[in-house]
Amino acid sequence: MIGTNGKLSLAICGLGRFARRRILPAIAECGNVELTAVVDRSGKAQDLPAGIRRFASLEDFLETAPSGAVYIASPNYLHAPHSLQCLAAGLHVLCEKPMATNSVDCQSMLTAARNLNLYLSVGHMLRCSPAMQLARRWMQEGLVGRPQSVDTVFHYELPEINRPWAFRRDCAGGGSLMDAGIHCIDVIRFLVGDPVSVLSANTDRRSHEDGIERSAICNFAAGGISSSVDVCSQSPYATLLTISGTEGKIVLTNFAACWGTVTVRLHTRHRDEPAREEVVDVSAIYAEQLRDFAATIDRPGAVALQDISAAENVRIVEQLYSIS
After folding, report:
1. Burial (Cβ within 10 Å: 0-12, 13-18, ≥19) of residue 199
2. Fewer Cβ neighbours under 10 Å: the N or C end of the chain?
3. pLDDT classification of 44: cutoffs 50, 70, 90
């Protein structure tokens, strides 16, 4: 809970490369969040802030009867069991995406949080991107006319040595579509809404002995708008978001970045050069996500909505797998 110092007491469960690179620096930027403990099975992480308690297992941490919240940054297959353990211990939860490796576990997490009157959120951090919020605002202002399509590309390189569990379906829930494509799905839903109607999906999972896709191209309608996801985990990093309408288009190169800047460009039908262009600082996305999480907990009677949306993202991925 929020302590006497006005800050949310937060523990991190899973101190891997992601948590060290993104979450620890983000906590340091948050005036309403205080890191109090980490669950680190490897014991290899160094340079933690002074006074941070360290535990080799989540069970050891929960035996201390902690209060506040936990950031679940463990591998995908542990998201549901770790979240359920923390909720049962009376802790609010911010869980990394995907919410779980299957929609059944997602529903178990939602049910537990509701029954225990605890806040459960999921780390679809691009909703906190000021570049994404600007693009949505331009859409709502009618700058592209009537929206006709939203297309996303998310390519990246994931060597197996970095996350060996990511190449096991029982551990990851899927390949590049579950890993990065789910971000694209969430962004599209953030921009144009629901319902989502799955149309087609092609993956290369049958080309690999482990059954894990490295690439996927999927098409669906979201909020009545034609939408697509092109994702690949064996290509140089590149992300692109294009929102096309009857009067022009909005283009975000590097839309999934959470560092540096993103340029948001508006192109109209009658001009080759951008009609409007804004460079947006996106380096504080994770810090903003944490600030929002803590602020929501501090508001009595606040309702968590993102958890429901995150569960729907997993269900959509399952639908895409079922037809690929």
Report:
1. middle
2. N
3. low
